[in-house]
Amino acid sequence: MPTITDYSPQVHLVALCTLGGVNPRLFELLFARFGDTERILKAPASALEAIGGINKPQIKRILSARDHLEDAQRFVNRLEERDIKIISFFDESYGELLTELNDPPPVLYVRGSMPDRTQKAVTIVGSRNATAGGIELTTNLAKLFGEAGVQVISSLRGGADAAAHLGARSGGGRSFAVIDTGFDQLNDAAAMALAIDIVEKGGVISEYAPEQASTSETLEASNRLLVGLSQAVVVTEMYKDSDATLDVVAFCRMIGKIVFLMVDPGAGVLSDETALHKAVKNGAIPLKGLGKTDDIIRSLV
Fold first, then answer.
1. pLDDT band at 89 (very low <50, low <70, confident <90, very high)
2. Less Cβ crowding at N or C end of the chain, within 10 Å?
3. pLDDT for position 174
4. Secondary structure, 3-state, the chain
5. What does the pLDDT look like over 207-256, one tens digit per residue?
């Protein structure tokens, strides 16, 4: 019978995090204490109890994860058959930017590829109910990034975010979509069509196993990935009901990530007073016109 040592770190992580319910913050505690997944799985209850911040139900889940290794291996094999890659915290393609998060995800599920860690990347977000002006501004901005070889990160929520992907593609660039569900829950026809287009040159990235449905918690977690995958964030349009976009801006402040607010030269700021106040309070830097795109690119370090 296979032992813990016979399974890969990738399978260990699936057993712990996907099947065992170990969340990113708990995994961070475990990894800081034990240094690798094999030692985590081999740890006795007494060693886990000695770690501050871990309760009894969590210890039970960690101890039971070693019983899920065979299931985890089968799970990994099924995903490989479906062309879904599992990118772990230990893989080179995972990227250093994500490790700057307070709770980097131990496991990612990817169709296509991850962003190239050697190239610049920018996140573009905006209103789901974007105006024609917001769509045009976002598309043109993303096109300029694409032409400059800057990778574009956004969601699949439609509106300005969809325009970001299409603009990057029209500029000959690559884009990457972060989704807040598992792949099997991506049911919106427009989002699925866009995802297929994105995967040709870029990738679609989820923190969740294929069957995971969207919740308020998964939405919040996906927003932190949008911030974590790039060197800066640009907002093109937002209003007081643009909860996801405002959450992204607030998260930028939490981790010290630079965020820009693109101002349309003709229409002005595509925002209302409430959203604009929140954005500026959270450190958003207004930039007027697409001529400022080079300034954003220079900031991507």
1. confident
2. N
3. 98
4. CCCHHHCCHHHHHHHHHHHCCCCHHHHHHHHHHHCCHHHHHHCCHHHHHCCCCCCHHHHHHHHHHHHHHHHHHHHHHHHHHCCCEEEECCCHHHCCHHHHCCCCCCEEEEEECCCCCCCCEEEEECCCCCCHHHHHHHHHHHHHHHHCCCEEEEECCCCHHHHHHHHHHHCCCCEEEEECCCHHHCCCHHHHHHHHHHHCCCEEEECCCCCCCCCHHHHHHHHHHHHHCCCEEEECCECCCCHHHHHHHHHHHHHCCCEEEEEECCCECCECHHHHHHHHHCCCEEEECHHHHHHHHHHCC
5. 999 999 999 999 999 999 999 999 999 999 999 999 999 999 999 999 99
Q: What's at 112, amino acid-wise?
A: G
Of all residues in the chain, the percent with pLDDT exceeding 90 is: 94
Q: In whole angstroms, give the CA distance from residue 75 to residue 64.
A: 17
Reference 161, options 218, 235, 217; nearest CA is 235
121-180+213-299 — its CATH code? 3.40.50.450
Question: Mean pLDDT over residues 70-79, rounded?
Answer: 96
Length of the chain: 301
* Domain boundaries defined on the chain: 4-81, 121-180+213-299
| pLDDT over 90 (residue 95) | no
CA distance 196 to 204: 9
**pTM for this model (two decimals):** 0.94
